[in-house]
Write a structure and sequence with these properties.
heterodimer, A: alpha/beta, 2 domains, nine-stranded mixed sheet, 12 strands, 22% strand, globular, B: alpha/beta, Glutaconate Coenzyme A-transferase, five-stranded mixed sheet, 18% strand
């Protein structure tokens, strides 16, 4: 069980690391993203599984990001992601556009330790034209020949980063049906997880908890961060804070407004916690 | 449409396309995240008594996908999702969709959020209904700046289906994959073939007589405001408040 504080968890991520993160309909660790901003991380390569949201926009705005590989970046009902859009326009980040099942498939190849996996569809999309690392071959099993199909390379992130409901004394984490986080954990070299709480016991010994659990095998560090997904919802524990997101969307329209927002919501929180 | 909201009208219109007897039966329909109108249309079909399995990606309670977000794509890859909905920042006359952005790749003009699963779902689902409420020359363009998902594929490329129709705030178009062209299927109240041509950036076919899109029946409106809203309240609270004037209990 590698329990540490949030800032130490962020310190485990070297500049330039490739980080896989779930979007706002899943369990992003917004708390760890904020800690990465406080630590002044640079050159991060973010992978949205399969899309990106609030945490990505914040990290891009704070200058932590060199590259984003994802199928979409959005603040949902609050509209387009303002700092991401500005950085893309200014040429400050490299954008690798994908499509949702391609992200899943590249991670699944890494899970299996195979160099690539095929995926249907995509042929004819400009996404393919802009992904020289994706290849098209004729299906070698097609009896009549032909049948072109896309091959996607395995994608092994350096770190999986997500939030979970709880950890147990063995270092297993539980997050229910958000199994895309399990795909992230299995495919990544290591995972850093924030949790609401740590409880006694072993989730793997409980048949009802085990299927929603990610075993300690995959996890390199855990930090307690209460409301660590906020403003994103956490299963049935707390709802999406739409006012917080629309407030962010409004302020982050300009670089100056975004800096003000950071000062209030990212740097102030540590000062408050240290008191 | 004095006592019928545009969203109710569009939901009833999409519901008729979902139930179109000429199209392959929709047994399992999936609805993407930001799609309350298509979701209302599918719930309406259910409440009218049609046995449709409906999987809402955005559902916060009892979400049908228990094996992660890849499950939708795995089901679709196998051909187990019969109908899906897509839109686009730009849609062109060959039913190509642009969800990436305008200008040079990857959206140097206006960047849209991104392609999501469209490049896969469009080709792997037997039926797609396109829905975009804004019907203007900036959305319905002659040729999209960037192709997130292509409307037709060359022979020999595996593809299960195409757009069945494009529903906008002004009309319903049918899509004809054999000639990669839309035809005008029906006009919403107040529209004419000329007004549609003026608001559309692409060329399309139109018969001499184009029917009007029917208004929702009393039964459909009652279901939308009652049983359909009940189903949607948890997942789409803002939509239900705005369209059905119903607030979620605290």
């Amino acid at each position: 069980m590698r329990l540490m504080d949030l800032e130490s968890l962020a310190a485990r991520v070297p500049d330039g690391s490739r980080l896989a993160m779930p979007p706002d309909n899943s369990l992003p660790s917004v708390a760890l993203a904020k800690a990465l901003i406080r630590r002044g991380a640079r050159g991060l390569r973010l992978v949205g599984v399969p899309t990106s949201g609030f945490a990505t926009d914040m990290l891009v705005g704070a200058g932590c990001v060199a590259e984003v590989e994802t199928s979409a970046v959005s603040l949902g009902e609050a509209g387009f992601a303002p700092r991401f859009s500005a950085a893309l326009k200014a040429g400050e980040i490299l954008m690798k556009d994908a499509t949702c099942p391609a992200i899943h498939t590249m991670l699944q190849a890494a899970e299996k330790g195979v160099p690539f996996m095929p995926l249907r569809g995509i042929i004819g999309s400009d996404i393919l034209a802009h992904r020289p690392d994706w290849k098209v071959i004729d299906n070698p099993f097609a009896e009549a020949g032909g049948d072109p199909i896309v091959l996607l390379p395995a994608l092994q992130p350096d770190f999986g980063v997500f939030h979970a409901v709880m950890a147990d004394s063995q270092g297993n984490v539980w997050l229910g049906r958000k199994r895309e986080c399990a795909t992230i954990a299995h495919a990544s070299r290591a995972s850093l997880v924030t949790v609401e709480r740590v409880v006694e016991g072993d989730f793997l010994a409980d048949e009802t908890l085990a299927p929603g659990c990610i075993s300690a095998t995959y996890i390199d560090g855990i930090a307690i961060a209460e409301r660590g997904a906020r403003p994103v919802a956490l299963l049935d524990e707390y709802r999406m804070d739409t006012a917080y997101i629309s407030d962010y969307a409004r302020m982050a329209k300009t670089a100056e407004g975004f800096r003000e927002w950071l000062a209030m919501h990212v740097f102030e929180t540590r000062a408050a916690a240290a008191e | 449409m004095s006592d019928c909201k545009p969203e109710e009208f569009l939901a009833a219109t999409i519901c008729r396309l979902v139930l179109d007897p000429a199209a392959p039966t929709a047994r399992h329909v999936a609805v993407g995240a930001a799609s309350p109108v298509p979701a209302a249309a599918c719930y309406l079909a259910q409440k009218l008594g049609y046995p449709i399995r409906l999987s809402l990606l955005a559902r916060t309670q009892a979400n049908p996908f228990s094996d992660g977000t890849r499950e939708l794509f795995d089901l679709t890859g196998q051909g187990r999702i019969d109908l899906f909905f897509l839109g686009g920042g730009q849609i062109d006359g060959e039913a190509n969709l642009n969800l990436v952005g305008t200008g040079e790749w990857p959206g140097k003009g206006v960047r849209f959020p991104g392609s999501f699963g469209s490049a896969f779902m469009y080709m792997m689902t037997p039926r797609i209904i396109l829905f975009r409420e804004e019907h203007s020359p900036r959305v319905l363009v002659q040729r999209v700046d960037n192709v997130s998902a292509n409307g037709v594929s060359p022979p020999g490329v595996f593809r299960r289906g195409h757009a069945q129709a494009l529903v906008t705030g002004r009309c319903v178009f049918r899509f004809h994959p054999d000639r990669a062209r839309f035809s005008l299927a029906s006009l919403h109240p107040g529209e004419t073939v000329e007004s549609i041509r003026a608001a559309t950036g692409f060329a399309f076919d139109a018969e001499a007589e184009v029917p009007h899109t029917p208004l929702p029946s009393e039964q459909e409106l009652a279901l939308l405001r009652g049983a359909v809203c009940d189903e949607m309240l948890e997942t789409y609270p803002d939509f239900c408040s705005r369209v059905f004037n119903r607030k979620q209990a605290a």
